[in-house]
Amino acid sequence: MGMLKEFKEFAMKGNLIDMAVGIIMGAAFGKIVSSFVSDIIMPPLGLLMGRVDFKDLVVILQQGHPAAPGVPEVKEVAIKYGQFLNSIIDFVIVAFAIFIVIKQLNHLREIAVTKEKAEPTTKECPFCCSTIPIKATRCPECTSDLVTGATGVGV
Hints:
Elements: H1 2-11, H2 14-48, E1 59-62, E2 77-79, H3 81-116, E3 122-124, E4 131-133
Antiparallel strand pairs: 1-2, 3-4
Helix pairs in contact: 2-3
């Protein structure tokens, strides 16, 4: 029963669930990009190139022919480089989209780090080395005047 409990804890961790959601969203995004390339980008591109449908671009290595009495069917053997071009364009679009997302995330991280490295709110008293507010003109610990440099010891 301990192993089942460990598996349940592992499966319910936030990182694993986030990763699963990311994979599912990535698969859906991939389908959208594939449709975008094959249904939106390639038709006008094919039209510009003389009414070429990229899906039909092939290099036939062996012609196929249907079965005849006493002769088995021979399937066509072809290199479908048009579909390969579609896949390359899919990849470039997905890679560019991921690049933009990562670039924005890095920019947001830089902003967060910059905010964390904001101006200090405290400083160290040069006389007693205690931490005091940055706007202080007199140290509350040793009573030294921080503007003129006069020490408060013995006053």
